[in-house]
Specification:
The chain is mostly helical. The chain is built from three helices and two strands, in the order E-E-H-H-H. The longest helix has 16 residues.
Length: about 70
């Protein structure tokens, strides 16, 4: 089980995070970034989620709620 951290240093299980990512955004990023580290992917997804949906992705928040 691999871990990444959000900008508040909250540890997040990467595989669990992938499961709640928007499918279209996740696939788009995969095409653009691969190969990259899980942390790079997590950070890029959080940024893109906010740009596309106009809100902070839940797992990028200070107190993420699963």
């Amino acid at each position: 089980m691999s871990k990444v951290v959000n900008k508040y240093n909250i540890e997040i299980d990467f595989d669990a995070a992938v499961n709640i990512m928007d499918n279209d955004l996740r696939e788009q990023l995969h095409e653009e970034l691969a190969p990259c580290s899980e942390q790079e992917f997590f950070d890029a997804y959080a940024k893109m989620h906010e740009e596309v949906f106009g809100e902070i992705w839940e797992l990028a928040k200070k107190n993420p709620i699963w």
